[in-house]
Design goal:
By secondary structure, the chain is mainly α. The chain has one domain. 78% of the residues lie in helices and 0% in strands. The longest helix has 24 residues. 21% of the residues are buried.
Amino acid sequence: MDKNWIKVFIAALFEVGWVIGLKHASDIWTWIGTGIAIFISFYLMIVAARKLPVGTVYAVFVGMGTTGTVLCEIFFFGEAFKVSKIFLILILLMGVIGLKLVTNDKSEEGMDA
């Protein structure tokens, strides 16, 4: 796997952190952690998008972030488990995976944004 895609996946993990932080932050330290997660998340996504197709990077970033956020809310914060939610998440993931598979992500040497 290309190192830029690894950056996108790590960025999506931090996205889950900051989205949950926006809802559950209650003191200065949790808000600072949320801010740091926002910075890291977008920084990694922007760096990866310099070498990969922007639309695909964004779709993968948002799809993984959405999936992770919904699953964390169910498993850690008592959100109701609904089969319809899981079904829709699976459809979202199939679309993201399909988009990744059909996208030519060859990075060109010497091409900087």
